Amino acid sequence: MRSLVVGASAGLGRALAEELARRGHDLYLVASDERDLEPLARDLTLVHGVTVHTHAADLAALDPTDLRAGYDQRFDDLDCLFLVAGLGDPDDSGSVDPVLLDRLIAVNFAAGVRIVNVFLDDLATRPGAHIVGVGSVAAARARRNNSVYGASKRALEFYFEAIRHYLADAPCRVQFYRLGYMATQMFGDRETMLPVARPEQVARAMVDRLGGASGVRYLPNWWRWVMLLIRLLPWPIFKRLDV
Ligand SMILES: NC(=O)c1ccc[n+]([C@@H]2O[C@H](COP(=O)([O-])OP(=O)(O)OC[C@H]3O[C@@H](n4cnc5c(N)ncnc54)[C@H](OP(=O)(O)O)[C@@H]3O)[C@@H](O)[C@H]2O)c1
């Protein structure tokens, strides 16, 4: 199996790369800085004996045909595409700096669509193929914080729904995850009363589900009940919450 992981240098993407390598996948790893990717690739090859190539690119200025060409130079076919990269920012509330705004949309939404687009025709007909996307519980109900991030993640989920419909009779599975809090750089040292998952635990659950049905899942699964509650809160109460 060959997997392409976008956002592989840290957090969940890195944990996914490790989990996939452990299960024998050859890997094509994408993130913005080669200095993060190269030692990871070397380590995975050494420990697991898999072939790992890297591609450094800023997703906010991505040329998807360049990514596709780079992949095709290294591997013949792609089996699993994982879109994991994400970007949040504490200033993503109310009126957002235009440069930050473009970057949030580019990394969290546009880059994902553009990458799926250049691999879609080949993945569509490939037995055992998967397109896997990562969203967030932040997109379940709009609020004043993480507004562009949440909107971009919801847009990405909408696009995945469209692709799932497009591929309904095809062998390729389309899986999308609404993730809860994970102990990564993105989550930082925020305080929360809710449990925070380890990225390794989430990565293992995602890899375990390869071969399973297409669809949308919360990870960890208990977040579905929390988000159901949040969505059911009447507006007069919800608007007063500092969430
Ligand atoms: N952590 C949470 O609590 C949480 C909750 C819900 C959903 N999520 C989602 O889960 C996914 C993984 O998050 P994480 O917590 O693992 O994040 P993270 O630790 O910050 O890692 C983000 C990854 O995305 C890459 N990335 C970000 N911007 C990029 C850019 N412009 N170009 C290329 N690569 C870029 C980063 O690589 P470089 O920075 O090296 O480029 C890194 O590999 C994201 O989609 C996030 O939205 C996270």
Can you walk through the features of this model?
By secondary structure, the chain is of the alpha/beta class. It has one domain (2-238): NAD(P)-binding Rossmann-like Domain (Rossmann fold), CATH 3.40.50.720. It has helices spanning 11-22, 34-48, 64-74, 98-124, 147-166, 199-208, 223-232, 235-238, and strands at 2-6, 26-31, 52-56, 80-83, 130-136, 173-179, 215-219. Helix 1 packs parallel to helix 2 (34-48) and helix 4 packs parallel to helix 5. The protein is globular and about 55 Å long.
Key structural traits:
single chain, 243 residues, alpha/beta, Rossmann fold, 7 strands, 45% helix, binds NADP nicotinamide-adenine-dinucleotide phosphate
SS-derived structural category:
alpha/beta
CATH architecture name: 3-Layer(aba) Sandwich
By DSSP (H or I, 4+ residues per run), the number of helices equals 8
- Ligands, ions, cofactors: NADP nicotinamide-adenine-dinucleotide phosphate
Kindly provide the radius of gyration, computed on alpha-carbon positions and rounded to a whole number of angstroms. 18 Å
Number of domains: 1
Looking at the structure, the CATH topology is: Rossmann fold
Q: Could you give a short account of the major beta sheet?
A: 7 strands, parallel
- Percentage beta strand: 15-25%
Distance between the termini: 41 Å
Overall helicity: 40-55%
* Strand order of the biggest β-sheet: 3-2-1-4-5-6-7
CATH class: Alpha Beta
